[in-house]
């Protein structure tokens, strides 16, 4: 497998992956929409195949996961669920990910209308996703200031 490298917007954080799943998933849940600004497109890599250079900050975004970002430019870098042996990387950081196929969308019933993705891939609603995986109820998300 080819080693790939990605970086944040300002280049202060560089990520090198020696192993990864060359396929993209997308999440449209409220938390991912807020974090990414639209839809969270990601791919995974096993933890032992990851090298990171540069300062990274982490935010505990739920009771079961953390999201990391560059403290200089604010670029989202990755999401890590507690106890998981792999990490979800923001696909846009890696030029190589442009060629990875889209294999799934979660929370399709909550997507932005402008982001209707075409193709023959698995689509899962919020209800179906939440039957199998933990989630954060919308009522528990931080509310904006008025």
Structural write-up:
There is one protein chain. This protein is mostly beta strands and 146 residues long. Helix content is 10%, strand content 36%. It has helices at 30-36, 126-132; strands at 4-7, 14-17, 24-27, 40-46, 50-53, 57-62, 65-69, 76-81, 86-90, 102-106, 122-124. Strand 8 and strand 9 form a beta hairpin. The mean pLDDT is 91.
Write the layout of secondary structure elements.
Layout: E1 4-7, E2 14-17, E3 24-27, H1 30-36, E4 40-46, E5 50-53, E6 57-62, E7 65-69, E8 76-81, E9 86-90, E10 102-106, E11 122-124, H2 126-132
Parallel strand pairs: 3-10, 10-11
Antiparallel strand pairs: 1-2, 2-5, 3-4, 4-9, 6-7, 7-8, 8-9
Under the CATH scheme, the architecture is Beta Complex
> In percent terms, what proportion of residues is strand?
35-45%
| SS summary, helix count | 2
What is the helix content?
under 10%
Instruction: Give the averaged pLDDT, no decimals.
Output: 91
CATH fold group: Metal Binding Protein, Guanine Nucleotide Exchange Factor, Chain A
What overall geometry do the principal axes of the alpha carbons give?
globular
Uncertain runs: none
Give, in order, the helices and strands.
EEEHEEEEEEEEH
Give the class-level CATH name: Mainly Beta
Largest sheet: 8 strands, mixed
The radius of gyration is 15 Å
Q: Spatial order of the strands in the main sheet?
A: 6-7-8-9-4-3-10-11
**Strand segment count:** 11
Structural class given helices, strands, pairing? Answer: mainly beta
Termini separation = 49 Å
For the record, the count of structural domains works out to 1
């Amino acid at each position: 497998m080819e080693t790939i490298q990605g970086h944040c917007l300002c280049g202060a954080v560089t990520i090198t992956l020696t192993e990864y799943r060359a396929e993209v998933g997308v999440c449209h849940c409220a938390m991912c929409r807020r974090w990414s600004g639209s839809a969270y497109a990601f791919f995974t890599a096993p933890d032992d195949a990851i090298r990171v250079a540069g300062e990274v900050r982490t935010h505990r975004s739920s009771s079961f996961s953390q999201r990391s970002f560059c403290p200089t430019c604010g670029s989202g870098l990755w999401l890590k669920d507690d106890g998981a042996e792999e990490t979800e990387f923001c696909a846009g950081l890696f030029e190589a990910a442009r060629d990875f196929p889209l294999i799934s969308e979660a929370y399709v019933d909550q997507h932005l209308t402008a982001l209707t993705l075409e193709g023959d891939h698995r689509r899962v609603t919020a209800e179906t996703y939440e039957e199998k995986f933990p989630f954060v109820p919308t009522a528990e998300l931080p509310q904006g200031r008025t």
